[in-house]
Amino acid sequence: MRLKNGILFILIILLYTCGTNTDKEISSQSYNNYVKIPSSSSGIDFINKIEHDLGSKSNLFDYDYFYNGSGVGVADFNNDGLKDVFLCANQAQNRIYLNKGGLSFEDITEKANINTNNKGWSSGVTFADINQDGWMDIYVSQGGPYSRDKRKNLLLINQGDLTFIEKAEEYGLDDTGISTQSAFFDYDKDGDLDCIVMNENDYYGLDPARFYKLFENKELLRENSSHLYEQRDGKFIDVTEKAGLLKPSFGLGLCVSDLNNDSWLDIYIANDYYVPDGMYINNGNGTFTDQIKSSTKQISFYGMGVDIADINNDNLKDIYVLDMASSDHVRSKTLMASMSTSNFDLITNKLDLHYQYMFNSLQLNIGNNNYHNIAQHSKLAKTDWSWAGLIFDHDNDGFEDILVTNGYRRYGLDNDSRIRINQTKNSYQGKVPIEVKEKLYEALPSEKLPNILYKNTGNLEFKDISAFSDLKEPTFSNGAIYADLDNDGDQDLIINNIDQEAFLYQNTSREKNVGNYLKIVTNGDISENFAKVTIKYDDIVKTKESKRVRGYLSAVDNDIHFGIGKSKKVDSLIIQWNSGKIERLSNIEANQTLEVYEKNGIDKLNDTKENVYWFNRSNSNQIEYKNIENEFDDFKKEILLPYKQSTLGPSISTADVNNDNLEDIYIGGPKGQAGKLYIQSNNRYIDKKNEVFIEDSDYEDMESIFIDIDNDNDLDLYVVSGGNEFNERSEYLKDRIYLNDGEGNFSRSVQSEISDYTISGKSVSKIDYDKDGDDDLIIGNRIVPQKYPLYEPSIIYENINGEFKNVTYKIAPEFENFGIVNKVVTTDINNDGWEDFICVGEWTNIGIFLNDKGKFRNIADKSNLSDKYGWWFDINETDVNNDGYKDYIIGNIGTNTKYKTNTSKPLKVFADDFDSNGTHDLVLSYEYKNEYVPLRGKECSTQQMPFISEKIPTFDEFATSSIEDIYGETVTTAYQRKVTEFSSIILVNNGNMTFEMNKLPELAQTIPILSSEKYDINNDGYEDIIVGGNIYNTEVETPRLDNQFAIVLLSNKIDNYTAIGPERSGLYTNGNTKSIKLVKNKKPMLIIGNNNGNSEIFELNIGK
Questions:
Q1: Are 507 and 31 in contact (CB under 8 A)?
Q2: Where are the beta strands (DSSP E) in 209-273?
Q3: Which residues are registered as beta bridge partners of 235?
Q4: Torsion angle in degrees (nearest 10) through CA of 52, 57, 62, 64
Q5: How high is the pLDDT of residue 337?
Q6: How confident is the model over 538-566, as pLDDT tens digits?
Q7: What's the pLDDT at 232?
Q8: CB-based contacts of 750, cutoff 8 Å, min separation 6
Q9: pLDDT over threshold 70, residue 807
Q10: Cα separation of 1000 and 1064, whole Å?
C-alpha cells in the first residue's frame, strides 16, 4: 500500500501549488550535462546497419516494422561491479562490450559466442539470472520479415567466463512471434522468475473491423498475442490464455511494475496502431485483468515506448507512452493521415476499444487506480517520431527528467507518397516493375531528428534542454538506456541508432557538483526482484522501484538511483520486497552506494490505513437523474468545429420552491428529455412531477434560475433555451418562464418580449440594476446555430411589474455585442450598493461591467484584462483573503489541450462562406514562421471546402501554405476572433476597481473549469472552491478533456489556492461533467451533473 502520512500530504500540497521551480535563473551551462564520447575513445563502434531488398520482404513496402530499430541493454556479465553493454542489431551481428572502467569498453563479441545459433532479426534485449547461478543471462527478442521458424527468441546462458550458450528451446522460451521485448518477473510469487514476451502482429495493414474478425480464430490469435510464460521446475510454460492475456498485440513498449502498490506485479504493453494499450493488473491468483479502459480515459494511438515512474514526487507511479505527433507544422501536415469520423466511431463505439489520439500520453496517477493524461499541459505531447521515453533524474536534483529518442529512417505513409504509390499501383495494375518500385522507395521521406531531454522543473512542468548539450545532434535513434557506467553517481546514456554509430554520452553532473545522490543495489532472492525503496529527507518522501525493462526494446540499469539535490543526508530508508519483507535504515550519508539483501528483511507489519476522504460518494438513489443526450452530429455540417456545441448540459439550480426552508433542485434536460424538479423532504428528495416540463421537453435547457417574477412571495423558474441542433430562429430557442403556485407546481407563462428572441442562450443571472426592488435579468447568449463562432446578442431585461423588457441597448450596449457568452454573474465589485456584473465566453475577454446608477460601463481595461481573450466558461464570486472585497474565480478551458496560444501569437478563428457555396465555413489558425496557417489538416479542410483539393493538390503544398494562400483575400475580411489565454485564473480585488490576475495552481490548469462552487471545506473561516468540468465531444483528432475528478481549491488566505486532488478529497468522478452544485442538507451534498450520463452525488465528510 502506498505511504500515507502527514509529511507526504504536505508534500503533495506543495507540489500541486507552487512546486520547487529549479529552473529559475539557471544558465545554459547548468543544462549542458551530457558530453558525447567518440567511439575512438569508448571502443563502442556498433552500427545497426539496415539495407532494404525489394526482391524479398526485407523492405518497408512489405514489412511495416522494417525501420523500427533495435534496443540496448546494460548488465554486469562478469560480476566486477561495472555495467557492460549489449547492443541489438536487426540485420547485423549483435555485439557485447565489456566495461573496462573510465567509459572505456572492449568488444568481446566473438569470444562471447552470442551470434552462433539462430541469430535473426534482433529487436529487444533484457537480462535475468535464469538458472540462479549468480551470473547474468541474456534474452533477445527477435522478429523480422521472416517465417516463424527463423525468428525464434534467444536465451544466452552465461557460463561465468564471458561466454554464453544459447538454450531458449531447452527452457521453453524460443517464442516464434514477431517479438519486440520481454521481461522477467515473479508474477505468481512462487519464488522463481516468469516471463512476458511482447509481440507485434503478422496482420498489419488491415482495417480494424476485419482485423478483430480475423482473430475469432483462436489459433491465429495465439500466434499474434503477447505471451506469458510461467516457470515450472526450470521450464517455461505458456499460460497466456489462462492468465487472461490472450489478445491481439502490436506491442512496442513494455514495462512491468506494481502499478497499484499491492505487491503484485502488473504489466503495461504499449500497442501500435488501433489496438489499445494493455494495462494488465495482477489479480493475485494467477490471472490478470486489463484495466486500461477503467483506469484511463484516453491513450495514445500509435503506442511506442513506455516508462513508469513518479514524475511529481507524490509516491504514485505515472505512465509515459510515446506516439508519433510532430512538433513541426509542416511535418504534422504531411506525415500523418487524418482520423476519419467513421473510423473513430468504429474504434470507440462499434468495437468498444478506447479513445486513442495521435499524441504522447503522460498518465498522472491520481490514486484509486485512476489516471489523468496531462501530456498536453506538460508540453510532452508532441516529440515527433519518438521511440524510447525514459524517466530518470539526470542531474540529481530530486526531480525525474525525461529522455525521448527520435528519428525515422523511412516513412511509407507520408500522405503524398501514399498517393503516388497508389497511383503507380493502379497504372501498372498492381504489377509495378522493380526499377519503378526502387524509385518510389528512394523517394520516401527520411529525416534525422534530435533526441530530446526534458528537465523536470517541478509543478508538472518540463523544459526542453536538449539544445544545451551534445544531445542536439539529429539522428535515427531508437532504443536507449541510462546507467552509471563510470560509477561516479550520475546517469550516463547509450543510444542505439540506425545506419549510424551508437551514441555514448557521459553525464558530467557529478563533476559539476550539481546534486548529490544515493544508489541502492537490491539483492533479492531472484535477480529481477522489483524491490521498492522509499527515502525521506528534508520533508520529502520518494519511492522508486527496481525494474530493468523500460523505454523501448531496452534494459536499463536496475539499481535504484536517487538524486537528492543539495541534501547531504537521507533521514530514513525503507526497502520493501514483494515477498512482504521489509528493512529500515536511518541517517545515511549522501553520495554512496548501498547494497541491501532480501534475506536481511523482516516480515512486514500490517500498518496500512484506509483513506479518509473529505467527500464520500453517496450510495443513495434519492436523485436518480440520467441525462440522455439527443443524437445530433454537429460535425456533419461544421466539420472543423473544435467541439460539439449541442452537448453543454445539464445545468443545476437550487432554491426553496415550497417555502419550507429546504433547498430544492432543478436539473435541466436536453432536447427530448424533460427537466426534473426534486423537492427536499426529511433528508430525501422527491421527484416532483410537472406536466409542463414534459410538454416542453423538445427544448434544450441551459442555465436556469429561481426568481420571484410575479411578486407573489414564491420563486418562479426562468429557463434559458439553447443548443446547436435547431435551425436559426427556431421556436425552440425561446427562453421560458414557469410560474410557481407556492407548492412547487409550475405553469408556463408567455411574455411577448421574451418570445421575440429565438436565439441560442446559455447563462442567466438576476440583478436589480435600477434598485427599484424587483429582480431584473441578465441573459448571456451564445452562438448562431450551426454557424460557430458567430454569436447572438446578449440581453438585459428590465422587470416592469412582472413583464420583462429588453433594455440592453440603453444601459449596456457593449454587452449586447460581447460575443459568445458562457457565464454571467451579478456582483457588487466596489461595495457601493449598486449591483454590477461580470461576463465571459469563448473568443471573448473578461467583461467587468460597473453599474453607474443604472447604466453599465466595462472597466476591464483598468486591470489590463481587455486583452485576456480565452475560452472562458465559468465565474464564481468569493473572498479569498477575507478583506471584504469580492474576488472572482474565472474558469477557462485550461492548458491540457492541443491548442496553444499566447498574447504575441494568439490562436485565431476565421469564419465566412469561403467557397461561396451558401454554407458557413470556419478555419482555426495559428502563427507559424510569421504567417497564419490552418490548424486542421488537408483532408478534413477539404471535406468542409472541396475547392481546396483542386487549388492545393498536394499535402506538401498545403503544409507550406498560409491561410491567405489557401482561402484567398476573403480571409482578410472574414469574421475573426482570437484567444490569448487558456489558463484559469483568480481576480483578486484591489479595492479600487482594479484587479490583480493570478493563475490558479497547475493541477487546476489540467482540466477545463466549466463549473464551481464555494464552501469553507476545512473550517478555517476562508471560502474554498470546488471546480470541475469535462468536454468529451471534441472533434476526433483533438483529445477529449476527460479528467476523472473534481478539484478542491483551499484558500491560501492571501491571493490564491492550494489544489487538492481526489486522492485526498475523494472526488473521483466518472462522466462528462458540465455542472456542480453544493446543496444545503443535514450533510452538505455535492451534485455532479454529467452530460449523457448519470449524475453523481457526494456528501461532505468534514464536520461543521
A1: no
A2: 227-232, 235-238, 251-257, 266-271
A3: 232
A4: -70
A5: 64
A6: 989 999 999 999 999 999 999 999 999 99
A7: 97
A8: 737
A9: yes
A10: 19
